[in-house]
Amino acid sequence: MKEQIQKRLSDSKAARWTALIIVSFTMMCGYFLTDVMAPLENLLTTKGKVVYFTDNTSMPADSLVAKVELFAEANSLSSPDLTVQKLEEGARYQYMETVEGKQETQEKTISTVSTGKGWSSTEYGFFSGAYGYINVFLLMLFFGGIILDKMGVRFTGVMSSGLMFAGALIKWYALKTDFGDAMLFGMNLQVVVAALGFSIFGMGAEITGITVSKVIVKWFAGKELALAMGLQVAMARIGTALALAVSLPVARMMGDVSGSVLIGAIALCIGFASYLVYCVMDRKEDAAVSAARAEAGEDPEEGFKLSDLKLILCNKGFWLITLLCLMFYAGVFPFLKFATKLMIYKYEVPESFAGLIPALLPFGTILLTPVFGTLYDRIGRGATLMIIGSVMLTTVHVLFALPIMNYWWFAVIVMIVLGIAFSLVPSALWPSVPKIIPMKQLGSAYAIVFYIQNIGLAMVPALIGFVIDRFSTQYNAAGAIVGYDYTVPMIVFAIFGLCAILIAGILKQEDKRKHYGLEESNIKKAK
After folding, report:
1. What are the start-end ranges of the E strands in 156-238?
2. What angle in degrees, to the nearest 10, is found between the helix axes of 189-220 and 153-176?
3. Region of residue 58 (phi > 0: left; psi between -120 and 50: alpha; otherwise: beta)
4. 129 — pLDDT class (breaks 50, 70, 90)
5. 485: which of 138, 256, 437, 448 lies 20 to 30 Å off by Cα?
6. pLDDT tens digits along 271-295
7. Three-state SS across 232-254?
């Protein structure tokens, strides 16, 4: 037999891992912008300026001015010449505050003054859900999968990462601009424009996500597939963790929430450039594959046809994985968008540190997802891992709902458990799709999974925002907001977890009947 002189680029460990790092970096930048607003909910829903003190507490600026004036009047001091505009970093003020039922004198120094946007929780929920509006209602993610299978990863990746960058710029412009009292669709115009930018960004991000998934299968099929996907997820979680950890400090330093979004837009520009570098490698890989097939006397691989969609849509195992993805992710990503405020009002964590506790979730997945991916590559048990992760997700939300252990350290422990769950399920779920769906249909299959997932990403934040406004917001006799009770929202998240457990159990039984190989290892041993 004639010895092959043309070798695939993906047969080189260095080449395929380099390709993985490049495309994963693009997704990491996307995930940073996806969650950059989550720690800013309290600032976004406060009207006017917000004062942050050096002891990591905060209050609306007009409240501070009023309290300082009342303190001066009560203590027969000269009335201070103080306005919101005159508040500045380093200034020290005294005022009265009720602490455990007693009036006590507080003396605090201003650290920074930032501008709040005055959004309602419903408007914030609408904005957060906007990520999936174009994908869900205009079916763009579905069409993106068809484009991917027809046009390939180079064209689709450049298009989608460009859309991410454009959406980020629109979002930044909206938050940077003062639209006054202008309204559209019954909402602040700033909210609507920011949501439009987030929708365009979300369209690009999700199409980029399915493109990167197909890239990984293309380069790692029959090799370290689950580990590669796990590492890609880990890098994406680095983006999420950075967003949760640095977004509020950046907004405070720059005096406005738009500063954090600008950082994300700059990162996306770099991510777009990195994907162009991958395109050069991919072109060489395709040339090597074509040459190898021609050398072996094989016909070119048959391309994707629209009729192939029927084979996907009639596959029960595929739909079970899709519904599991919907329910599991509905209990994670929307939760993260409200978790910072949960830490502030239930566990009494200072606002400056509240975003760090949800940040533990992505930091945990950074370490654990590759570990569980390696486990799946070598010993299998994918369906079992999905069941265990779903059980842990449900337990976490039940613990957050119960009126017990309202201590910051307990919240940390529960968040770590959620991080483990969020490592188990994705490390098994995404590598399982290629076991059910052939490579030529994989882009469309991932697109449908992401499309259904986006229904949750679009609808659940709006639902939770409504639930918080309707059932969780606490008012005093004067009608002012004094706190939040998160029991009902957490029960809603727990219900999603219960559905995930049920679906994962059915999927395991279906795997036994159809022999998809979900419980088998991914690495093919050489014969």
Report:
1. 183-184, 187-188
2. 160
3. beta
4. confident
5. 256
6. 999 999 999 998 988 887 777 766 7
7. HHHHHHHHHHHHHHHHHHHHHHH
Residue where the block lists tokens 């490592």: 423
Cβ neighbour number for residue 526 with a 10 Å cutoff: 5
Contact between 337 and 126 (Cβ < 8 Å): no
Q: Where are the alpha helices (DSSP H) in 221-307?
A: 225-254, 258-295
Of 101-105, 110-114, 236-240, 499-503, minimum mean pLDDT range: 101-105
Closest CA to 141 of 199, 225, 216: 199
CA–CA separation, 72 and 77 (whole Å): 5
Q: Which residues contact 1 (CB under 8 A, 6 or more apart)?
A: none
Please give the backbone phi and psi of residue 117, each rounded to the nearest 5 degrees, phi first.
-105, -20
Dihedral of CA atoms 283, 226, 496, 484 in degrees, nearest 10, equals -80
Query: How far is Cα 431 from Cα 63, in angstroms, rounded to an integer?
Result: 53
Q: Is 212 in contact with 447 (CB distance < 8 Å)? A: no
Pairing of the two strands 92-99 and 102-117: antiparallel
Neighbouring CB atoms inside 10 A of 402's CB total 12
Do the Cβ atoms of 511 and 504 come closer than 8 Å?
no
Q: Mark 349-374 as b/e (b = at least 16 C-beta within 10 Å).
A: bebbebbbbbbbbbbbbbebbbebbb
Residue 459 vs residues 79, 327, 455, 527: alpha-carbon distances, Å: 50, 12, 6, 49
Helix-strand-coil percent breakdown of the chain, rounded to 5? 70, 10, 20
